[in-house]
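Table S2 (text version). Query chain:
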Amino acid sequence: MWFKELYELWKKDNSLTQAVNDSHRMLEQTYEMFQASVKSLRERDDGDIEINVYEKDQIVNQYIRDVRKKVFKYLAVTGSANLIPGLILTSIVIDIERIGDYTKNITDLAVGHPRRLDGGDFEKDYQQIEAAVSEIFAKLIVAIKESEPSAAKSLIKEHYWVLKRCDEIVDTFIRDENAAVSSRDAATRVLYARYLKRIAAHLTNIASSVVNPFERIGFRPENGEQ
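Corresponding structure-token output:
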């Protein structure tokens, strides 16, 4: 089922409409969390953060519980005839919840590494990855709200490199090719690259929900898919 058709189906049922709106709010909350945690880690020397990421994460967790209740209510009323919309929406909010968890991990890094984290030899890479993840967040929010499969597909295609580059950074440290770096900085850089990768991966999973049929959520679009 194409996402626009699915979106129209969501809008026809009040409980699913509310659940979709909740998923939008969840994504917006996690984007705010991401921006604040990255700023704390990468721009501050005191580990302070502009918002309480942990409180925001509790709000996100409440949203996911609310979405589940609304999806359950929808399925209880409609039965299995329209099972896919509920399953897709549940898949989306699970990815958003995981993004919130990885954002908390970045916050923990900022607290444990209160000096501004410099990327060293990978500083330019980190900046490009951060910008790309932020762009995915912003464009994905719009793509879902406006039900734009083509925009979501472009996000996956244009930013898949992020996952590979994060892996390359981690592999460099595993091979001990940055032996001159302190263990504290090395560990923080590796973990940061890993968390950025996981956030980007969950965002592309969400984008795939807009593009792919249910069985291919979380995978890149197949050749020939529109």
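Notes on Table S2: The first helix runs from residue 3 to 12. The chain has one domain: 3-216.
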